[in-house]
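Shipment paperwork, digital attachment
Item: protein structure file
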Amino acid sequence: MNNNQPEFSFDFISITKIAIKWKMHLLILTILGAIAAIIFTGPTFITPKFKSTTIFYPSKSASVSQSVLNDQQNITVFGNREESEQLLQILNSEMLRDDVIRHFNLREHYEVGEDEPYPMTITRKKYDKNIIFKRTEYNAVEIEVWDTNPVKAANIANYISGIIDSLKYDIQRARSAEALKVVEMEYNIRKNMVDSVLNVLDFLRSKGIYRYFGQTDIIYQKIVDTRATLIEEEERLNTYKQYRELLPDTMVIRTEGRARAARASLRMLEPQMELLRKYGDQFIKTNSLFEVESKKLNDIIVKLNNLRIDNSNLPSQKFLISKATPAERREYPKRMVLVLLSTLGIFILSLTILLAIEVGIPNISKQL
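Attachment content:
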């Protein structure tokens, strides 16, 4: 290009004129680029992958005993963000990942050779790349599996969705088992305490003490009445003896009989009152202790039964919304999109090169 050449106007019309001038070159280069894109985006160069997805909502964290027996919670309520995050932590755990790798033999499926320096690490990285867990905007949990085999992708997604219950159950059962042992120990301690208190109460009952306050009131009143009767009969008997010659013998005999009966009643009642005085304080304390310990034991029995129910029955941790099915079409790569983008890129690159040839790079630089 000489210095007297008119300056190139970098506008749409000028570019269009050059494109028309070099249309055959542009067409050939674009077609060749499209053909190359079709070839290099084919399965020979890019392994196609299929995607399978399963979606479920976490259930509300609830105890079976509290929800069903005590009617305090509803196990049919969907969980919130907290429950979703808990499930995501379990889904991303090494325990689940290693289980899936072992169950589906993913090391061999991902073609990780045994001679690799770190075969398990490589397999785990491919696992993390092809199996994705995420929370949706509505707090559902989505499992997304990419694989070259559509059936295997669906099977992996459904397997993970299926074992989430058992994994969380194992975690919760391990913790509840520890709690169960503690409560069982406490139950045995309280049971032995109640049995010991019952033994003391049985001893006191063998002495005739059943209801201290009621028995004391009754016996005391009987003693008072009997003593009054005895005094009355003795005074009457003394009077009768003074006038015995004037009175029938039967009257004196009957009075003496009533006095003897009163004395006999006192001999029977006074030892009972003495026992109440001797063991009354012990009975009151022991009976009060029995009531307190019995209430504690009943509370522990309720707690123990609830833990046993929770340890043996765990509701499902999810509400399945969408089960994974084998994909009919590959999800990766988007071949049409890649071909179109590649073709467009080749066209733009070819046009840029032709512009440089036509008007010179310095003129293009000035216009840009």
